[in-house]
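note to self: dont lose this again. the chain is below, predicted strucutre after it. 326 aa total, dont forget to put it in the shared folder this time
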Amino acid sequence: MPRLICGPMATLSHAAFRRCVERFGGCDEYFTEMINAPSLLNMGPFEKYYLMNGPCPEKIVWQLTGSRAEPLAEAASIVAALGGIGVDINMGCSAPQIYKTGAGIAWMTKPREETREAVRGVKEALSAFPTMRLSVKCRLGDEDFTDESFFAFVDMLLEEGVQLVTLHPRTKKEKVARPPCYGYVAKLCSRYEGRLQVYLNGGVKDASSLRCALAAAPDVDGVMIARAAAQKPWIFAELNSSRRTGGALEIDFQQLALDFIDDVVACQPPEFHKTRLQRFFSYYCDNFSFAHYFKSKMLNAFGPDESRERVLQYFTQVPGDRYRML
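---
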């Protein structure tokens, strides 16, 4: 079984969510949500919450985003000093509000030397932290990408000291409804065997889709899961039964939701409570018989107290949804 990784998700890959996943046995690595390098350097009132590394600091991978080389390098020094597995540069986010600023997948379309400078700067910053791994998360490129341009990009990453690439095998504009091109993940594994670790990202949501992904790219070092982990925080235990502390796994959906709300209150500032809860429940509520109704109630909850009330109300109304055995 390749390593199982919880992927970076904006407003969700924080300490409270990691606590939720860990209650079911956890995973091998947790990527943080994107940390904006310039914002981190300014160290505003909320930046410290992005630097929380609990409940398992040894599993953390700090993901940085930014549009310029210098802030990325400086931010890498800050997060690396906090420990963990390594630092990841986001070169794959295709959200317009990200790439239009020159961050995310924009790095794949900039002049190659500009991107090389950014990677080199982060690698040099990590030289003071020899155990910290340098990785890059990317896509295939823009809509007009070619095999030649994609592999030239990865060649450059390897030349500059990148040790791992997580590939989401879609182009900039391809949506999740379109199947990932796992063949490119397999090509990466073959081309860089023994020189570069490769993680697969995209499309894995259950045991069946995991088998499909591994059949197409059997030599990957790891499989990264994001949205499916938000809906099913127990997915890593579902995919690898050795993570379970006992035999069958019983899920108490009511308690899971209440614990998550408490963890958000404990790990996030009050200003973030509503949006962090909304983000989680937008996925979590898809598990239930009356998903649309439950989701609407949770997304319109004012804050933690009202969220707790609505969780209790739902499972009182639909008690058959409360428990599930895996």
